[in-house]
Amino acid sequence: MSARTVAETLPLPGAAVSTAAPTATAPAGTEPTPPGLALVRRKHPWRLVSYALLAVILAMLANSVITNERWRWDVVGEYLFDEMVLGGLVTTIVLTAGAVGVGLVLGSLIAGMRLSSSRVLSTIAGWYIWFFRGVPVIVQVIFWVYLAQLYPVISLGIPFGPEFLFFDTNLLVAPVVGAIIGLSFNESAYLAEVLRGGIAAVPPGQLEAARAVGMTPGQIRRRVLAPQILPVVIPPFFNNVIAMTKTTAVVILASVTDLFSAVMEIGARNLQQTPLLLVATFWYLVLTAALSLLQLGIERLVARSATRR
User: Is residue 35 in some structural domain?
Assistant: First the structure.
C-alpha cells in the first residue's frame, strides 16, 4: 500500500471519529423502509373467495362419487387385482418399454441424420419424420400386425437372385411384435425431433472450441453436449413416455390384450363397463405417477452433476 493511500485512509488531526455501527442498507432494487413503519403483506381477498368456491365444488364432487351407489366401488375393488387385468398391465408395460427403447435408438439415428451436413441424409430424415408423424399410429400398428396379408413369407437371399432363408410372417411378426414395431416407428419420429431440438440448443461455437482444444468426439458428447442437452430433453422425453403408456390402448384393434382391452373384455361379460374403466384409470395413474417420480429423480441427479462440474 502506498503512503498516499495510507494517508487517505487515516483520519485528519482533530477530526471526530464515528464509533456508531453502520446502518443497514435496503436490498438492491427495493426502497428502504422508513423508520417506525412495519412491512404489511398485500391482501388478496379474492383468493380466499376462490379457495372457498373450489373447496365447495370438490366437496360436492366427493359427496356425489361416494354416495352414488351406481359407481359400484365393490366391483372396482373386486377386479382391481384381477389376474386378467394384471396380465394386461404387464403387456402395457412391455409395449411401452419396447416402443420407447426401439424408438429412442431409431430417433437418435434420425436426429443425427437430420443434423448431418449431407443434404441427402438430412432430406431422408426429414421425410421419415414427416411420414411417421403424419400416419395415425393405429394405422401403423394394424399394418404391421397384419403384414402377413401382404407378405405371407419373408425370404432372404440375393436381390433379383436366388433366395436362401424363408420365414413364416405370422410366426415372425406376432401380434405383440407387430404392435411394438408400429409404436416404435411412430415414437422414433417424435423422439428424433426432441433430440434434435436439444442438440440445436447448444451453441455451435462451443463445439468448435471443444474440437480446437483437442477433445475427441466421445469427450465432446460427454462433457459438452450431455450436460446441456439432458436438462432440455428430459421433460419432453418423459412426456412422450407417459403418453405412450396410454397410446398402447390402440392395440385393442390388433388382437393384443393390454390393460384397456382386458377391462373392456371383462366389462363386455358382466356389463359393468364404468367400474372396469375406473380400474384401468387407477393403473394408468399408477404408471404415470411412477414415471413422474423417475423423471424427478433423473432431473435432480442431472442438476447435482451439473453443479459438481
Answer: no
Average pLDDT of span 61-65:
88
Helical packing angle, 226-247 and 175-200, nearest 10° = 150
Residue 87 domain boundaries: 76-307
Report the alpha-carbon distance of residue 96 to residue 294 in Å, rounded: 15
Asked whether residue 24 is assigned to any structural domain, the reply reads no
**Can you read off the three cell numbers belonging to residue 304?**
447435482
Instruction: Report the pLDDT value the prediction gives residue 34, as an integer from 0 to 100.
Output: 63
- Contact indicator for 255, 175 with CB cutoff of 8 Å: yes
Residue 140 lies in a domain: yes
264 conformational bin, left if phi > 0, alpha if psi -120 to 50, beta if neither: alpha
CB 35 within 8 A of CB 26: no
Domain assignment of residue 210, yes or no: yes
Q: What is the mean pLDDT of residues 181-210?
A: 89
Counting the structural domains of the chain, the total is 1
Looking up residue 164, the CATH number of its domain turns out to be 1.10.3720.10
Give the per-residue pLDDT at 163.
Answer: 77
End-to-end CA distance of the chain: 37
Q: Which of 298, 114, 97, 295 has its CA nearest to residue 192?
A: 114
What pTM was estimated for this model as a whole?
Answer: 0.78
